[in-house]
Design goal:
By secondary structure, the protein is an alpha+beta fold. The protein has helices spanning 2-40, 74-85, and strands at residues 64-67, 70-73, 92-97, 102-107, 110-115. The chain has 2 domains: 1-41; 64-115, no CATH class. It has 2 helices and 5 strands.
Length: 119
C-alpha cells in the first residue's frame, strides 16, 4: 500500500509539473502572438497638429506731437476725445491742429472739436 501511495504522489507531482509547463507554454505563445500582432499592425500615429500662424508681435508705440517746444501725448488726446464725447463710439477719427491748439474729431458720424493744451 505504501508503494501505491508513493506512486500516486509521484504521479500527482508529475501531473502538476506537466500542467504548470503547459500553462507556461500557453502564456509564452500568447505573448508571442500578441508581440507578432503588434509588429504586423503599424501603430497609428496621430496627425501632427498644425500650428496656427503666429502673428508678429505688435510694437508698443508712444506717439507725441510737439509744437512750440511743448509736447502732448496722442494717448492723452484720444483719452480726452473719448471724455468729451461722453459715450462709446465704434469709430473715431481725430484731426489735430497744433497751431490752433485744437483737436477736431468725428465719432460715429458726429463732428466735434476740443481744445488741446500743449504743456
Amino acid at each position: 500500500m505504501a508503494t501505491k501511495k508513493a506512486a500516486a504522489k509521484a504521479a500527482e507531482k508529475e501531473t502538476t509539473k506537466v500542467t504548470k509547463a503547459a500553462e507556461t507554454v500557453k502564456e509564452t505563445k500568447a505573448t508571442a502572438t500578441k508581440a507578432a500582432a503588434e509588429k504586423k499592425a503599424p501603430a497609428k500615429k496621430a496627425a501632427p497638429k498644425k500650428a496656427a500662424p503666429k502673428k508678429p508681435a505688435e510694437a508698443k508705440v508712444d506717439f507725441f506731437v510737439e509744437f512750440g517746444g511743448v509736447q502732448v501725448s496722442i494717448d492723452e488726446v484720444v483719452s480726452n476725445v473719448k471724455a468729451t464725447l461722453g459715450k462709446d463710439a465704434k469709430e473715431i477719427k481725430v484731426y489735430l491742429k497744433p497751431e490752433e491748439s485744437k483737436a477736431y474729431f468725428v465719432a460715429d458720424g458726429e463732428e466735434k472739436e476740443m481744445d488741446v493744451f500743449f504743456c
